[in-house]
Amino acid sequence: MKPKFPLQIFITGIGTGVGKTLASAVLCEALQADYWKPVQCGNLENSDTLVVQSLVSNTSSKFHAETYRLKEAASPHFAAKKAGIEIAIQKFKLPETDNRLIIEGAGGIMVPMNNELVMFDLIDYLRLPTIVVVRNYLGSINHALLTLEFLEGQGIEIPGIIISGENYNDNEEIVQHFTALPIIGRIDEAKTIDKEFVSAQAKQLKLSLALQFQL
Question: How many separate helices (H) and strands (E) can be counted in the chain?
Answer without folding.
Answer: 7, 9
